[in-house]
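Journal club prep — side note

Before the paper discussion, L.F. wants everyone to see what a predicted structure for a comparable chain looks like in token form. Sequence:
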Amino acid sequence: MPAQIKDNGVRVDLGDVDEIAHHYRRHFHQFLDYLTIDPSAPNPLDQVGDGEPALRDAMRRAGIAGLTRLELLKERDEYIARLDAGEKPYSSKLYKSGWLNDDGDMIDSQTGEVIPFVPVGSAN
């Protein structure tokens, strides 16, 4: 069984297309916000899996791509209603941002805590 995490109530298998699709949830919620400005905007996530059937299918299983206009507007309305009721905007523990301190530790920009960080070398 693959390693998993639970993020926002969803179990995510790490290291496969379902994890990649889960990473796109943040973009989906940003898009839902944008739909309040332009209700006819196309879902940019519908293009993510082009040429990659497994990723396209994972995005659809995650409910963030392949939705009809009515489904998108319903998702938007539900998300905005939750925000209006005081819920915080979508966030994920899979997304961290920060900076490197003098000791080479990655520091979380929101909490000030050290984020486990593995530097990636160049492809060359």
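L.F.'s comment for the group: The helical segments are 17-23, 25-34, 53-61, 69-84. Keep this in mind when we get to the figures.
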